[in-house]
Write a structure and sequence with these properties.
eight-stranded mixed sheet, alpha/beta
Length: 224
């Protein structure tokens, strides 16, 4: 599918898929959406020493970068193991054009950004001390066959239900739930009523929260 680079309202870039009429991120702001949904209402809600994160999907790598940025603000006395699934990896030209490192003051972020994207698929790589990344190239529905530690934080960042409705139905959420620990948190930009009901059926405590700029609501769900 043909993709093109677009600039969102906060100055950060995203990819746009012409055939689907779909952005990888909110046109209101790619960076601020990632920070609101996955950091403020995701990572910052977890207090475990070892945090195992599962992301669906890797996309442009922006969620990994904002997670590392937040990790560097802490005393780093904990470990993050980050597992990210992606069926259609982006190419080197797109990686260079997105240049997300430009939005961070840390001069090391260009190198960190490159390490994220240069990391071998299917192999765990230490991007910085205490932060391990494993990118897995696969269809999301292969999740059931992937060996993972118990996940205590899920970044559910699939394309929207308008273009990929099967990613927002019960079978995939069941697979995700099976990989999660009790009291694990799933966070997503979606606030669809059908998604809330599915998660409740799977014994999640579901909360609607204020969404990122341009979106009224989002979901947090804790596995019971």
């Amino acid at each position: 599918m043909k993709r093109e680079i677009k600039t969102t309202n906060d100055g950060s870039k995203t990819l746009f898929i012409n055939d689907l009429n779909e952005n990888y991120h909110s046109h209101h702001g790619a960076l601020q959406e990632a920070e609101h949904v996955f950091i403020k209402n995701g990572l910052n809600q977890i207090n475990d020493y070892e945090i195992n994160i599962l992301e669906l999907g890797f996309g442009t790598g922006l969620n990994v970068l904002v997670t590392i940025n937040e990790y560097l603000k802490t005393d780093k006395n904990h470990v993050i193991n980050y597992f990210s699934l992606e069926k259609y990896p982006i190419n080197e030209s797109e990686i260079n054009d997105l240049a997300y490192f430009e939005h961070f003051d840390n001069p090391e972020f260009k190198n960190i950004y490159q390490k994220i994207h240069q990391a071998d698929w299917g192999t765990s790589s230490e991007i910085i001390k205490g932060f391990n990344l494993k990118k897995i190239e696969c269809d999301f529905f292969n999740l059931k066959d992937i060996d993972l530690p118990k996940i205590n934080l899920v970044y559910y960042d699939c394309f929207g239900a308008r273009v990929q409705p099967d990613l927002w139905e019960k079978p995939l959420f069941e697979m995700v739930s099976d990989k999660m620990s009790v009291n694990g948190l799933l966070t997503t930009y979606s606030s669809k009523g059908s998604v809330r009901r599915i998660l409740q059926e799977l014994n999640f405590n579901v909360k609607k929260l204020q969404g990122p700029p341009g979106k009224r609501e989002m979901i947090n769900a804790v596995k019971q």
